[in-house]
Amino acid sequence: MRWRIDLSYKGTNYSGWQKQSGDKTVQQTIEEAFSTILREPIEIVGCGRTDAGVHARKYAAHFDANTISDSAKVLYQVNSILPDDIAINFLEKVKPEFHARYDARERHYLYYIHFNKNPFLIGQSFYFGTQVELDKSAMQDAAKLLMNYNDFLPFCKTGSDVKHFKCMITESKWDFENEQAIYSIKANRFLRGMVRLITGACLNVGLSKLSIGSFEESLRQQIPLPLQWSVPPEGLFLEEVIY
């Protein structure tokens, strides 16, 4: 039988989602927990990769298992042995053809920035301590420009093995609240490092280090930006996966 899980995790102590030799990852940690409780080898298939240090509020995954008779009990047992920075929110039986990655229609990411030093936000928001006043209107314009394009080579981390750079973005906007900024983006898929590169580009536009013209020209010609900045991972959250 196939089972779906939704989970939340703080990625600070992990080398991303995907299993890799010699590093602690979210996928490996969850597989070990379910394998221990169910007493059978469990392989988890996630909705996508998140980089080292990136967080998720509602990450979706699936696995196959034939030994679950009481899902509520298994959910409790697995959560009891998982570390404090990972929580399984629910466990439910789904159709055998359900696929956490390929069935996802849209993914929603948020990137958090705070401008005043705050020890309670360490690891969960990017502290951008600058005395320079950001051009918020220009940052919003840059974010909106993305909605006019379908190819995003300028915002793909080098070394990626993707076959194409097409993404359908349905939301791209900034919200500025007091001493905080939040970038929100929704799309059917994301390229490697895409959100952090977009966020960095928007900040450079806001700092007048990158012009809107150069930003748009890179999109139009599908060439790297003249100034690239991949912001730190701690501000990035996978907010939701929509099926």
Task: Provide structural commentary.
By secondary structure, the chain is an alpha+beta fold. The chain has 2 domains: 2-94, Pseudouridine synthase I, catalytic domain, N-terminal subdomain (Alpha-Beta Plaits), CATH 3.30.70; 107-242, Pseudouridine synthase I, catalytic domain, C-terminal subdomain (Alpha-Beta Plaits), CATH 3.30.70.660. The protein is 23% helix and 26% strand. It has 5 helices and 9 strands. The chain has helices at 26-38, 71-81, 136-145, 194-206, 212-221, and strands at residues 2-9, 45-46, 55-64, 86-94, 106-114, 126-127, 169-177, 180-187, 236-242. Strands 1, 2, 3, 4, 5, 6, 7, 8 and 9 form a 9-stranded mixed beta sheet that branches. Strand 7 and strand 8 (180-187) form a beta hairpin. Helix 1 (26-38) packs across helix 2. The longest helix is centred in the N-terminal third of the chain and has 13 residues, at 26-38. The protein starts with a strand and ends with a strand. The model has no long low-confidence stretch (mean pLDDT 96).
